[in-house]
């Protein structure tokens, strides 16, 4: 639960600027190490599996130039915080939610009511123009998973 504030900040910054500051990643890394070592102690095997999963999900996109290095680092920083299945859920929930949100915004910008009542939104470029902010997706997935685990 300690890492919610940095995740929200990372998601917002990545959405607006398509960058993830390393200082925020260091805060998350420190919280992940603390959580893994002191609170949960999930084990080295789980950590190695999570790092492998994080690299398998993000490294191909980074190599092809679709993802930035911050996206890869964010998945690696989140590795100590989750079980392997939860890490896969973070990624899949985040991607699905972000694609739905970006599609909604894309169509909302083209509606006539938007052009009348929110002319500045209608003149912005499509949310898909700058690429997929995977950091925002990962943050959204992690926050969603944490919210769902409360219930």
* Quaternary structure: single chain
What is the domain total for the residues? 1
**Uncertain segments:** none
Order of helices and strands: HHHHHHHH
* Average pLDDT figure: 83
Cα-atom Rg, whole angstroms? 17 Å
Structural class: mainly alpha
| Separation of the first and last Cα atoms | 14 Å
How many β-strand runs?
0
Give helix % range.
over 70%
Could you outline the blueprint of secondary structure elements for this entry?
Blueprint: H1 4-17, H2 22-40, H3 44-63, H4 69-78, H5 84-109, H6 112-117, H7 119-123, H8 134-150
In words, what does this structure look like?
The model has no long low-confidence stretch (mean pLDDT 83). This protein is elongated. The relative contact order is 0.16. It has one domain (4-150). The chain is mainly α. The chain contains 8 helices and no strands. The protein has helices at 4-17, 22-40, 44-63, 69-78, 84-109, 112-117, 119-123, 134-150.
């Amino acid at each position: 639960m300690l890492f919610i504030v940095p995740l929200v900040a990372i998601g917002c910054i990545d959405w607006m600027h398509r960058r993830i500051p390393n200082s925020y990643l260091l805060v998350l890394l420190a919280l992940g190490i603390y959580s893994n070592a002191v609170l949960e102690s999930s084990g080295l095997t789980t950590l190695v599996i999570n790092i492998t999963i994080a690299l398998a999900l993000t490294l191909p996109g980074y190599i092809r130039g679709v993802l930035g290095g911050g996206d890869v680092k964010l998945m690696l920083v989140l590795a100590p915080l989750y079980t392997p299945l939860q890490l896969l859920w973070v990624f899949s929930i985040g991607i699905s939610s972000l694609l739905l949100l970006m599609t909604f915004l894309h169509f909302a910008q083209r509606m006539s009511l938007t052009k009348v009542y929110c002319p500045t939104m209608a003149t912005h470029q499509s949310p898909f123009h700058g690429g997929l902010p995977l950091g925002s997706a990962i943050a959204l997935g992690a926050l969603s998973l944490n919210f769902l685990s409360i219930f």
